């Protein structure tokens, strides 16, 4: 028996073969809670549909139950999505499991989007439980019979600089969502862009409350990204509270969830312009950084006439690598990246000369940068 809550019905004299004074006591029903399945960070599962809810007889629905323990001190997200167009499964998050007849009864929050849209729950790094019990529930008895994916993870990145660039992030097959943390200042306008580098799933992002102890379903966001085209989502956002805001990047639904998806997420306090990568350039090129010299950040642009492997990194005068910006497969097109004058550990580099080196198409390009303070 799979973990979670299930009902059991016992019938006496089901075929009415015995003469009795009353048949009202011939049916007995009860619910039981089996041990939840323990899940692992960033390791998705594909499961058969949840059990029939049986809400006609019990106040709590039957459900497929799990147990997830996050890393303390980091924001987290849990997500489910039906893989079929007619599947409608919801996500409930519980705080308790205590045995075969109790548990999965204290709801922390839920996500109840219709159809096979991805449902997820996101929690703040502070004041939320370390161990939780997510459950997949059919919307109703006819809520679908297809498989679903379930995915859970901690924050993939945390940034307090007011700007960040997370390039070529991978949502592997059946992974549904990533969560990041941004320290945003009240009253400041921030600009965001999400770009799908490869894959077919529609990917979007939302921003959530920085308040300690907050947990929200997908629909409880402070702001939602806006559709630009099939590959881009953007947002401008002015936070009302200063603090660490969770940002969830997610597949919009479960269609094609079993395929790989690569995306890039950027935010800044100045507008970000999406670079057209749909029309490949004629030649491989690496443009001069702008601005240069730089104080806080500079933009590095390169063009790929065809898809292939590329490596773009920053080096100091001693030839030591300072920051890796790209290292992997890149689509054909024009690509724009921002360097915030920080090393791979997030520490500001010292003033002086640095080299940006692009390796692609069997060639190497070098650009000199000057960092000022």
3D structure, described in words:
The chain has 373 residues and is mainly beta. The chain folds into three domains: 4-152, Jelly Rolls (Sandwich), CATH 2.60.120; 155-268, Jelly Rolls (Sandwich), CATH 2.60.120; 285-371, Immunoglobulin-like. It has strands at 4-11, 27-34, 37-38, 45-47, 63-69, 76-82, 89-94, 97-99, 102-103, 107-111, 119-123, 131-138, 148-159, 164-171, 177-184, 190-198, 203-207, 215-217, 223-224, 226-229, 232-237, 243-251, 261-268, 285-286, 298-304, 308-315, 321-330, 333-339, 352-360, 363-371. A hairpin with a 2-residue loop joins strand 8 (97-99) and strand 9. The radius of gyration is 25 Å and the shape is elongated.
Distance between the termini: 63 Å
Helix content: under 10%
Order of helices and strands: EEEEEEEEEEEEEEEEEEEEEEEEEEEEEE
Any idea of the CATH topology of the largest domain? Answer: Jelly Rolls
**Average predicted confidence as pLDDT:** 90
Low-confidence stretches: none
Instruction: Kindly provide the radius of gyration, computed on alpha-carbon positions and rounded to a whole number of angstroms.
Output: 25 Å
* C-alpha geometry: elongated
Kindly state the number of beta strands.
30
Number of domains: 3
| Strand residue content | over 45%
């Amino acid at each position: 028996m799979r973990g979670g809550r299930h009902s059991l019905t016992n019938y006496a004299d089901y075929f009415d073969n015995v003469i009795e004074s009353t048949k009202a006591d011939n049916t007995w029903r009860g619910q039981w809670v089996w041990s939840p399945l323990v899940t692992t960070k960033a390791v998705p599962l594909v499961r058969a549909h949840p059990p029939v809810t049986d809400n006609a007889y019990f106040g709590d629905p039957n459900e497929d139950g799990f147990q997830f323990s996050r890393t303390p001190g980091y924001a987290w997200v849990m997500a489910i999505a039906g893989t079929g167009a007619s599947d409608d499964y919801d996500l409930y998050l519980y705080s308790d499991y205590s045995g075969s007849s109790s548990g999965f009864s204290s709801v922390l929050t839920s996500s109840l989007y219709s159809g096979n849209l991805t449902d997820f729950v996101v929690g703040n790094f502070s004041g939320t439980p370390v161990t939780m019990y997510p459950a997949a529930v059919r919307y109703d008895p006819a809520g679908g019979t297809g498989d679903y994916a379930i995915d859970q993870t901690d924050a993939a990145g945390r940034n307090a600089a007011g700007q960040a660039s997370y390039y070529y992030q991978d949502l592997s097959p059946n992974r549904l969502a990533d969560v990041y943390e941004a320290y945003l200042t009240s009253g400041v306008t921030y600009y965001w862009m999400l770009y799908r580098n490869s894959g077919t799933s529609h990917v979007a992002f939302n921003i959530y409350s920085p308040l300690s102890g907050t947990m929200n379903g997908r629909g409880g966001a402070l702001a939602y990204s806006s559709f630009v085209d099939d590959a881009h989502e953007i947002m401008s956002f002015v936070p009302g509270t200063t603090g660490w805001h969770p940002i969830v990047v997610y597949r919009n639904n479960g269609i094609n969830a079993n395929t790989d998806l690569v995306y890039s997420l950027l935010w800044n306090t100045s507008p970000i312009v999406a670079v057209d990568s749909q029309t490949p350039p004629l030649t491989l090129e690496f443009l001069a950084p702008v601005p240069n010299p730089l104080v806080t950040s500079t933009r590095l642009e390169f063009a790929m006439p065809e898809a292939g492997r590329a490596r773009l990194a920053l080096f100091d005068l001693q030839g030591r690598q300072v920051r890796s910006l790209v290292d992997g497969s890149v689509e054909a097109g024009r690509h724009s990246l921002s360097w915030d004058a920080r090393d791979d550990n997030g520490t500001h580099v010292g003033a002086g000369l640095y080299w940006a080196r692009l390796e692609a198409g069997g060639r190497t390009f070098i650009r000199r940068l000057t960092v000022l303070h």
